[in-house]
Amino acid sequence: AQTVTQSQPEMSVQEAETVTLSCTYDTSESNYYLFWYKQPPSRQMILVIRQEAYKQQNATENRFSVNFQKAAKSFSLKISDSQLGDTAMYFCAFMKTATNKLIFGTGTLLAVQP
Amino acid sequence: DSGVTQTPKHLITATGQRVTLRCSPRSGDLSVYWYQQSLDQGLQFLIQYYNGEERAKGNILERFSAQQFPDLHSELNLSSLELGDSALYFCASSATMNTEAFFGQGTRLTVV
After folding, report:
1. CA B51 to CA B74: how far, in whole Å?
2. CB-based contacts of B61: which residues, under 8 Å, 6+ apart?
């Protein structure tokens, strides 16, 4: 069975600074996808970024980028130039190919301080 | 706005009752998923439908059932409700397999 671990329950960062959220996962699969979802106080689950395991290049979406280390089974999220609107719970998620079933970590609550 | 619509947004009901949560997927999406988010269990996958057929089951209780209709909307039925069923229930949809899922705003269920 696959598991996703987020070891940082809470983090804080100053506005305009950079922060990295950690995620590790355990799987015996070779083909899979990894995601970061953001859940602001509104409770909406918003897709932040996606990474295909077969791609060596790290995914980037504007201020959000990942550091994907397949051998280490690590998938961290870097947020650059943090903004107040980035304050949210961030979930790392694993999806085995052809299942579309997401397995979530326990989340990291990120607070961006003015 | 993700394009996934869930109704109602909030629901308060008594123990032992039955409720139905409704989900309309994004236009064109064939796959619908239900997730439960609770304080003690976190975000858990319940069930998936693809074009009307059940495709995968997660930690869904026998008291819970779901279906996807020909117009692709889905309903999650929760019966014999218990206090522990209080949670945020999300519906998500995706176009096909191996594409990212987009989530609705959730239905907050409170069982009293």
Report:
1. 10
2. none
- Which among B90, B97, B103 has CB closest to A100? B97
Neighbouring CB atoms inside 10 A of A23's CB total: 27
Q: A106–B106: do the CB atoms touch at under 8 Å?
A: no
Read off the tokens for B64: 């819970």
Q: Are A95 and A103 in contact (CB under 8 A)?
A: yes
Specify the pairing of strand A108-113 against strand A10-14: parallel
> How confident is the prediction along chain A (114 residues), in pLDDT tens digits per residue?
789 999 999 999 999 999 999 999 999 988 899 999 999 999 999 999 999 999 989 999 999 999 999 999 999 999 999 999 999 999 999 998 877 789 999 999 999 999
CB contact under 8 A, B97 and A107: no
Whole-angstrom distance, CA of residue A69 vs CA of residue A53: 9
Count the neighbouring beta carbons within 10 Å of the beta carbon of residue B95.
Answer: 15
Q: Which residue has the tokens 């998936």?
A: B48
* Residue B13 contacts A where some CB pair is shorter than 8 Å: no
pLDDT tens string B81-90: 999 999 999 9
**Shortest alpha-carbon distance between residue B30 and chain A (Å):** 12
C-alpha dist (Å) from residue A102 to A14, A91, B19, B47, B107: 31, 11, 25, 11, 19
Is the CB of A64 inside 8 Å of chain B's CB atoms?
Answer: no
> Do B24 and B9 contact (CB within 8 A), yes or no?
no
